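Field reference: "sequence" (input) and "structure" (output). Example, TIGR03943 family protein:
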Amino acid sequence: MKRRFSLNTEAVFKTLILLGFSAFLFWFVKSNNIVYYINPRFVRLTEAAAVLIFLMFLVQAGNSFRWTSVVHSCLCHSGHSHNKLALLPFVVTLMMAFLLPNNALDASMAFNKGMNLSTRPTTSGQPGLTVTVPGNVPTTQTNNNNSNSQGYLPQEQNPMQAKIDELHKTSLINVTEDNFSLVTNEVNMYPEQYAGKEITMIGFVLKEQKFTTDQFGLVRYVITCCSADAMPDGFMCEYKNASNFREGDWLNIRGTIQLGKYEGNTIPVIRITAFSKAQEPQNPYIYPKF
């Protein structure tokens, strides 16, 4: 029986697909476009996946050439064509990954998701309450210096409590990318404690049907894991000429926190005293750190 050195075309297709996915992931990380889709803390995992796929490519490349008998080659030729068609979805996915533009989520998506003003917990301002922070990690505000029976850390060992104490003491809250989620959660949950304080922040305009003409939301997308769980978070704002703002406009505002009502709930409302148009940040997303 004759044997010959032949090219396994199916293995070649698989090799090229693996090389394409590995190259795409490497490019995705190096170009920093990956931040449009996942939390940066997962970038290392993506790099590891790219390396793993590259190793699979090397193994598959070794299977692209083989010794086959002439008879076996003839019998299997028709079956190989069906196997190649099964690879088509991977080819289409890879082409879309390279060709589709990488854009941040816009205001239209935020309008569909809506702000979660009406789903905030009721507020009382009493110490010892459980606070929900990004990542759904329960933390208790308590004045005890020792761990309580539920196993919560004492204040001096709780890094978030130090940030909250700082918010309580300051008269001007400067919202940054680092403290955005902490400020929005704390102020929205306990607006009575922050009423009268000044606040500065940057975000984009979000308008909802239930808002009056002088109201709008100033929000940013918060991504815990990936863009699929992105939620617009921020504050309701009031300004007499708010109708001049277009949805999606980026603003840098300064105002005073006041108490307001939304669907029967007490919420903080920022009464704007000054604002300026702003450019969309290079990375418009917020990634919770607490």
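The helical segments are 9-30, 43-62, 70-86, 88-99, 107-113, 159-169, 180-189, 191-194.
The longest helix spans residues 9-30.
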